[in-house]
Amino acid sequence: MRPSGAIVLGILAAVVALLAAPAAAQGPIFGTITGPNALAPGQVSAYNLTIGGGPTGAVTYTVSWYLSGPNVAGGKPSASQPMTATGNRTTFSLNVTAPPAEQTMSLVVRISAAVGSTYENTTVEKSITIITPIVLSATFQNAGTTAAVNVTVRFYVDGVLAGTEKIARLNPGARVTETLNYLPSGLQPGTHQVRVEADLDGNGVIDPAKGEAVVSSLFYRGTTPLSTAWTILIGIAVFLPVLLLTVALRRRQRA
What we know:
This protein is mainly beta. It has 2 domains: 5-130, Sandwich (Immunoglobulin-like); 134-251, Immunoglobulins (Immunoglobulin-like, Sandwich), CATH 2.60.40. 6% of the residues lie in helices and 51% in strands. The strands form 4 sheets. A 5-stranded mixed β-sheet has the order 2-8-7-4-5, with no helix packed on it. A hairpin with a 2-residue loop joins strand 7 (103-115) and strand 8 (118-130). The model is unreliable at 11-25 and 226-242 (pLDDT under 50).
């Protein structure tokens, strides 16, 4: 049986109404910012923004971001000159330059989404600590007869990995110093441990029989900023290649 004209017209009207309907929302629009929780003064870094919720369909997103805080002069972007990006994607990379003054500031991101007559917007923030780094410095001397190649150097503070460096090659009798800028965000006044590992094969296990070394020492942080004068020296001798390891901590001077 062929459908009547009224039924056909009704179906067509329903299709037209569906196509003309505004884009459906999938809940309120929101954003998530990921990236470093702490930066050194003047450091350039990128944060990742992921957008969720909001309207669906061929959505155009506009993102603007700037730094806000008690003394963000010299940082970029500023509230008076925010950076802006537009696109149909839901992920954006946000470049920032930290201000020179130590403080706790915020990265403020404004998000808008538009499709047809539907428009939504929101604001999201991420707290960032600006703090002068401590330089962790480890000096290695190879007193053996064979070269140490691709040595993994790991720095720990209070048992937490602070960073990793690599010694490409250390010839017999040679000496090399590796440094790491450690941002002591949340480091409370009191006694703390610094540990340095020299891992020859990079397997994460320190084996003295292979000439690998691990040393540690305690340092004290007072209630005032870290002094520029204090130094910790540690020496250790192990099997070939022998690595004599000296660990030094100092406060990095601002330019």
